[in-house]
Amino acid sequence: MKKFLALSLMGTVVALMAATKGIDEKLAAKGEKLWTKKGCNACHTIGKGKLVGPDLKGVTERRKPEWIIAMITNPDSMLKYDPIAKEQLKKYGVPMTDQKVSVEEAKAIIEYIKRESQK
Ligand code: HEC
Question: Ligand 1: does its nearest atom lie under 6 Å from the Cβ of 99?
């Protein structure tokens, strides 16, 4: 009986891990707060369609982490020099504003976007 309990407990843990696909929950929760504090939600949704800027659902699968961090922490330079960002600007017609986000904060926001993208 004890063995069975231990096994089913392990099964639950494995299932939980699979469901969250390695999301750092603490970091994602920090990112969720920053998402509204830094005003990302004024221009973006995650899975609810285009707003002022693109829907960010699945953005971590479309772009490299370094690219996303650069876009969040330094949109001005990205919109000036990066070919993908420049292309996006043509499409959306509005420049993303610098929301004064640090690299650490950007990482938390990205974890939140990842978590929301799985919903
Ligand atoms: C004033 C509106 C505005 C705000 C505020 C804003 N963005 Fe953006 N964002 C945009 C627009 C518009 C684009 C598309 C490029 C462009 O036109 O500048 C974009 C592009 C992006 C991209 C690239 C998306 C892709 O598919 O390549 C990411 C990632 C992103 N924003 C994240 C954020 C995060 C995180 C925040 C909050 C810190 C934020 N943005 C705040 C308007 C905004």
Answer: yes
Helix (H) or strand (E) holding 18: helix 2-20
Question: 28-44: per-residue pLDDT in tens?
Answer: 999 999 999 999 999 99
Count: domains in the chain: 1
- Tell whether ligand 1 has an atom less than 6 A from the beta carbon of residue 110: no
Residue 114 to residue 119: CA distance in whole angstroms: 9
Q: Are 100 and 37 in contact (CB under 8 A)?
A: no
Domain extent, residue 91, equals 24-117
The pLDDT value given to residue 22: 87
User: Quick check: is 34 in a domain?
Assistant: yes
* Percent above pLDDT 90 for the chain: 81
Kindly report the number of other CB atoms within 10 A of residue 59's CB atom.
Answer: 18
Residue range 101-119: average pLDDT? 96
Separate counts of helices (H) and strands (E) for the chain? 7, 0
pTM of the model: 0.87
Task: Assign residue 103 the CATH number of its domain.
Answer: 1.10.760.10
